[in-house]
Amino acid sequence: MRNSDQLLVLKDGALVKRGIHEDLVDDGGLYETLWRIHLGETDIVPEIDHEGESPN
């Protein structure tokens, strides 16, 4: 995934983000959360709105 030209982040079948791995991880949205779960840094999935962002 880190070497991909572009990644698409989908939620409920809708595109919520698009970009490269580093930008998506830095963004703090759904992709970062899923990446941290993959790494074993967290097992908690926060509520995410339809734009892929965690509500404040």
Uncertain runs are none
Strand % is 15-25%
Distance between the termini: 28 Å
Total beta-strand segments = 2
The number of helical segments is 2
Shape: globular
> What would you report as the Rg, rounded to the nearest angstrom?
11 Å
Description:
It contains two helices and two strands. The protein has one domain. With 56 residues, it is α+β, with helices and mostly antiparallel strands. The chain is globular. It has a two-stranded antiparallel sheet with strand order 1-2. Helix 1 packs across helix 2.
Task: Provide the fold topology.
Layout: E1 7-11, E2 14-19, H1 21-27, H2 30-39
Antiparallel strand pairs: 1-2
Helix pairs in contact: 1-2
Brief overview:
This protein has 56 residues and is an alpha+beta fold. It has helices at 21-27, 30-39, and strands at 7-11, 14-19. The longest helix has 10 residues, at 30-39.
Keywords:
globular; alpha+beta; single chain; 56 residues; 2 strands; two-stranded antiparallel ribbon
